[in-house]
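Troubleshooting entry. Yesterday's outputs looked truncated, so today I'm pasting the complete records for two proteins to confirm everything comes through intact. If either block looks cut off, that's the bug. Protein one:
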Amino acid sequence: MELGLDGKVCVVTAASKGIGYAIAAELLREGAHVVICSRDRERVAQAAAKLEEETGRPVALAIAADVSQPEAIHRLSAEVENRFDRVHALVLNAGGPPSGPFASFSDEAWEQAFQTNLLSAVRLVRAFLPLMRRAGGARIVAIASSSVKEPIPGLVLSNVMRAGVQALMKTLAVELGPEGILVNTLCPGRIATDRLRELDEARAAREGRSREDVQRETEALIPLRRYGAPAEFARVAAFLLSEANTYVTGQTLLIDGGLVKAL
């Protein structure tokens, strides 16, 4: 299938590793001009070098930007505008908040999760919307979590903020659809990233078990009996971000190997 991403300008946040990195790699392979960002300047530079080595294509821009900070988002959009003047695809991604029970989190922890995981999506869309309108239509994909369908124990901060992102995307799909901007939410289940490893290790520590034992137990609940690979997630994202997607908007799609049983 021809995705029509060749020469398109795509912005992927939190792309120095994990799902964001995998999406950036897939978009590069499809010929897109890919802009990546991450909080750490050295880490995003290393990611860009690794992406170029893996795909054989240059990263258009690699920018240090903490999406929880409004001024960083402003700088990011300004650099992209200066280089390209328009944006065809935007991936809203941010690192997950800490795990733990409800009673363990202060107002400050809730505020940080709000800034990083929900308000960042609001600000990114606001900042890039003029550039997407200039492109004459665009695609937005927000990375949330399977918790929007089935809350995950021990991840109360993520559960709440990801549900908010889903609601925002559904609303934007209605508002922006007439302008040819398609908006969807992609929800990873158990995708084998550093973040998932950390969560498995935290659970293993709480329960006095090995991480491998926790993983085996979780995999037994997944119909495909394994964790997903970031590249598997990225291929779905690339379709939704592409011109091949002409009629899918306002949807929440779980990439979870069948783990979530909700209708």
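Protein two, checking that the full record survives here as well:
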Amino acid sequence: MLNQNSFSKEIMWEATVSCNPEYDGMFFYAIKTTGIFCRPSCRSKTPKYKNVSFFLNAANAQKDGYRPCKRCRPDLKRTTYDPLESIIVDTQKMIELNYWKDIHLNDIASGVGVSPFYLNRLFKNRTELTPRMYLENVRIEKAKELLTSTTLNSTEVGYQVGYKSISSFYNAFKRRTRFTPSQFQAKGVEKIQS
């Protein structure tokens, strides 16, 4: 439990009720009826005041028999925790590891455990790109690498980075670089020779 030099119970209760992230890492609250402890910013249902205990650190809450909330992850050593960040990171990794495959939004959403609609909206809000746009960026970056570091022609590169249609590859490449793949490859060769 807390010592006398810490925040008053009223301040901690107000931070808990308002889900105030400014207090994350300064204290934790535990709910006697559920056996769970949380960060002040946790968006779970507000507990009854009589069922709450406050702790200065996660270790003390765990020592008293409370388990960490799966929503706000107070057991992690970070001051703040954004559960949606892992969805973004996992989506990016999935795309980067599978860019050359015929990958669809439904596959990605299933892989990260959310609906396609939710993933599309969340990813766009956080990165300003849809997963499809991110996939295209990854493919074009890989194509640029291949065009400047291998002897593959632009058609071979297009297929190798996951495009099923060469016209789609050319259009996407030109949209991103302002060059056709062949022009880009020629410019890359010029730079190497000069």
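Both blocks look complete. Sanity check on protein two: The first helix runs from residue 9 to 17.
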